[in-house]
Amino acid sequence: MKNAILYYNSIKNKFIFRKIIESNIQRLLKSTLYKICILILPIFLSLVNPAFAETTTSDIILYLNGNIFYSSCPIIVENGTALAPFREIADTFGASTSWDSSSETITSTLNEVTVQFKLGSNVMIKYGKPVEMGSETCYYGNTAMVPVKAIGDAFGYPVTWDECNRVIFLGDVVNINNNPMNNIKITNEFRYNDYIGEYSGVSIFSNGNENFGMELLGINDYWGSSYAETIAKIADCVPYANVYNIIVPTAQEFYASNSKKTNQTAAISDVYEHIIQYNKKNLKPINIVQTLYDHAAEKIYFCTDHHWTQRGAYYAYQKYALENKSIPEIDPLNTFEVQNIYGYYGSLCSFTSGTYGNQLLAQNPDMLQLFSPKSSSEGAAYRDPFMRSYIQSIKVIYPPAKSYSCFIEGDYPLEVFKTNVNNGKKICIIKDSFGDAFATWAVNNYEEVYVIDYRMFNGGTYGDYGSGKNDFKISDFYNFVKFDDLVIISYPVTVSTGSSVQLLTKMVN
């Protein structure tokens, strides 16, 4: 989704806004009545709650054709009418939109239908004729806000109001109650708004104090749905295990400027929606987007590396532990022994070698912060799933690597850690490299930890161990190991790349 916003001449906001706070408990109770509380919006989207008697920001969530709409600007309510940022919605629908600053008029065309909105007017022009909207268009900051009902009328989409969940559907109506990505709140507080440029595929931003390299990655709709189907099939292969899917956003979701970032949050939500529709009782997708954002003031991603930090992975593992009811509350982060390694230049420095981008990233090297596990363990790496072809012994934390490979010593086909936790529990982690930092936390709660890099089996060419020729079937591995929990952790490249999804699919019998 494009995240473009109209910027107009400076004008003072003429409205006073106040925050509407809804009890989470009340919303949860209301959601059980979902099927009976969908109400078609009245022509002016009149919301009967008396709290909407004046103009306010709101906690209303907007869906566009079944997908949650994420914006830097909230939905506002003026005298019972909900207004939304027009340009962002028009861009999402694929409309061609222009702005005439002299007349303060928006003109937008979609499917040969042209509409016009004049700021401060309650009339829309469609087919050359005036149409009453019930409320005036207005500014919210520098953003043009238009009544949601009028946007639906303009582009030919029905508008539906779900009172129980406080959701507006513009276009398709979907059941939203089971998607863990619902109600995510991300602001612009931590964004690096100065975009410097792109160097060898790495986009570099600045906040005035430091430079931040990021991958601006999207998730392809086709491969995203194929990925969801594969995850569901993997769950079918291990019916007696608890299966969890975690999609990790890249740093750009929280730190890139709005004008450049892609919307991974909405894409992850779509993938999870597909997963939920397969209705697998042993499969649960986990929302770590909100979890990571809640800690965005901390160092959860590197500035010179495309990975998250071990700290970021801790918060994701903490959320996983909350979702997995069999894991006790994990220890606070500040109770772990920590070692700091300064002067780390990560993968993005390698990607930008020989470019000006490399010089920019070199101005502020990262610090590797290594948290040691509280358990003791013995680790080994193997080429094959039955542990016949031994590679070497490995450690959970390996400081001599002085890189992201400090975490489980990097990528191997199969890594096995046997700990002194002595609870009989076993976890299997199918991962790309983002799973390396995640796995360092699992050794504190499981007696046996199995880490599988899907890229190194079933014909995969990643890595140096010649294991691609080895087959890996998740059902065979389950029968061999009998793990309790399976976590499939991926970042957007895995979810959206055909070759990656195909390698995951080959794990299914």
UniProtKB/TrEMBL annotation:
Per the UniProt record, the source organism is Monoglobus pectinilyticus
The record ties this protein, via InterPro entries, to: Cu_amine_oxidase-like_N (IPR012854), DHHW (IPR025945), Mao_N_sf (IPR036582)
The protein, known as? Copper amine oxidase-like N-terminal domain-containing protein
- Matching SUPFAM superfamilies, A to Z? Copper amine oxidase, domain N (SSF55383)
Q: Which residues form a coiled coil?
A: none
Domain annotation Copper amine oxidase-like N-terminal: ranges: 64-169
Query: Which Gene3D superfamilies does this UniProt record tie to the protein?
Result: Copper amine oxidase-like, N-terminal domain
